[in-house]
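[step 3/7] fold_predict: job queued, chain A
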Amino acid sequence: MNDYYAILGLAKGCSQDEVKAAYRKASRAHHPDIVGHTPAAEERFKQINAAYEVLSDPKKREMFDLGVDPLAPGGGRGGGDPFAGFGAGAGFAGFGDIFEAVFNATSAGAGQRGPLPRAARGRDQLERLTIDLADTVFGATQTVSYNTYLTCSNCGGSCCAQGSEPVRCPACQGRGVRERLVRSLLGTMRTMDPCRQCQGHGTQIPSPCPECSGSGRVRGRRSIEVDIPAGVETGNRLRLTGEGEAGPAGGPAADLYVEFSVRRHPDFTREGDDLLADLAIPMTAAALGATILVETLDGPRDVVVRPGSQPGATVVLEGLGVGRLGQRGRGDLKVRLDVRVPQNLDDSQRELLRRLASERGEERPPAATSSAAGGVFTRLKDKLSGR
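[step 4/7] structure written:
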């Protein structure tokens, strides 16, 4: 039985990435176009392809690890077939081979009706993009750079070296499958297996592109402009059709998904489509009223503080919030008043406040009581008890 691990210079238990890398290295080093079209070179190249066919297929690799060569006629076992010679004559298949023959006949008839295409769609990609709060308010455009597979510029995805093209596989005559007869307890069965010479494609590439090693694509870095819609928030994803990795052998490109993450802003926080901000004002402005110029994401705007405004009161600036995702209009900017009590007063300032307190009868604030009329403590108690 062939030692497929030794053919590719691998150890049992190696990863699929190691199998691919070893195959590419061996196929480049032993390709008949490079070392010459001798019987020994062609046989060596066939062994390399057979080893890759087995080790890259999890089911075939599992069979090989159990001591069964999945490419041998009848699925030959390294230790000999215990059913050999039993029955009506030579070529009898064991029970495992019966089921394999039935499965292959079913899958070949129902699935593969012709050569397998080399081209396939690439895989979708996910990239994360960090944006500013202002980008969610107005929308923006940013450049996203990412690593991906690109269609090989040397061969244009054909997988062939310049001036060459795929040729019809002589083993299967371009069908992609080969028929074989298996004798079993159920009688003689005709099965169809993928051609080992062309991997089921029906064609072979005698001169692979040196740039992409015959895959039709190469790793590279790409940059595109992404339009950020107003209203997005952390965790939202934007799908960009056809901007993902290019497929092998000129296959269609997959999609790119961009996931947004919004940076914290030092002055504004977001609540739905609204923006929230705190504005510190002096006690006198809250008592007398004032118009205060503040800086918003839309530029300077006036905040009108009404006379007698209390701490925590909110002033709403309509239409200065976040753009509504997929809709027209914007939310509001809500400014919460943070009334600051003056500290470190000088004598004249204290005197002014004493005179104000005297005129308002507030030199000694009335004590809160727990009477039925209800003082502050009674109201607090009622609130806590749910009355």
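[step 5/7] annotate
The chain is about 25% helix and 25% strand.
Residues 39-55 form the longest helix (17 residues).
exit 0
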